[in-house]
Design goal:
Blueprint (H helix, E strand, L loop, with lengths): L1 H4 L2 H23 L9 H8 L13 H26 L4 H18 L1 H15 L2 H27 L8 H17 L9 H16 L19
Helix pairs in contact: 2-3, 2-4, 4-5, 4-6, 4-7, 5-7, 5-8, 6-8, 7-8, 8-9
Length: 222
């Protein structure tokens, strides 16, 4: 009878809320200490969750990394409909819009992103995580790849190898967190202006007569 009265939608919403609560606790803990020093019990305490209950969502340290990836990509994908609606005309604007949101997520969780970036290759070597990780990251990679492909088809964006340029754009955004001491005093918008200049200069085709053009003053202010 109890099972029959359960509301799957409410249960799913509660699970998402709990995961969000745990993710934010993870970001606070990783701002204070390294990933290998942190414990699941400590994260539970930070999140205000009973130590035993947290194992419903985190079965071990590797699941913390998966939660970080899911949460950060989730913030990006939540913003995709608005990006696409606002930049439907020109794929160059959409590409910069995706990168700007990605940079914002990285900036909000710099220490946590640095941990994920460092540990992700370890997860990729583990068979039980390789497929899951690829699935989690796919929406982010696709969000970069799709406007690139549309832009190339229209002669607006130039590149040779899609996978290489997607990874290169990701690394440009990642640099804000991975630059460590060198970028300690660099704010997000300063870093963003340099990214836009690099992307425009290398990827975007020259402005065509009557078109919006890659050198439009508004471009890159996503």
């Amino acid at each position: 009878m109890t099972e029959a009265l359960r509301n799957p939608v409410a249960d799913d919403a509660l699970a998402r809320a709990r995961k969000r609560q745990i993710f934010l606790a993870v970001t606070r803990v990783l701002a204070r200490k390294s990933f290998h020093e942190a414990t699941v019990r400590e994260i539970a305490l930070e999140a205000g969750i009973a130590a035993g209950s947290i194992y419903v969502y985190l079965t071990g340290k590797n699941e913390i990394l998966m939660l970080i990836a899911e949460s950060m990509v989730g913030e990006l994908t939540d913003a995709l409909p608005a990006i696409r609606a606002g930049h439907a005309i020109d794929p160059r604007d959409e590409l910069l819009g995706v990168m700007h949101v990605a940079l914002g997520v990285i900036d909000r969780y710099r220490e946590t992103f640095a941990v994920l970036n460092h540990e992700v290759r370890y997860l990729e070597q583990r068979q039980e995580y390789r497929g899951r990780l690829k699935e989690v990251l796919q929406p982010y990679k696709s969000a970069l790849a799709e406007p690139l492909e549309r832009g190339r088809a229209r002669g607006l964006i130039r590149f040779d190898d899609l996978y290489s340029v997607v990874e290169a754009l990701h690394m440009l955004c990642s640099g804000l967190a991975m630059g460590a001491g060198m970028l300690a005093k660099t704010d997000k918008e300063t870093y963003w202006r340099e990214i836009v200049a690099i992307v425009r200069g290398h990827l975007f085709a020259a402005e065509t007569a009557g078109g919006t053009g890659a050198d439009s003053p508004a471009r890159g202010d996503a």
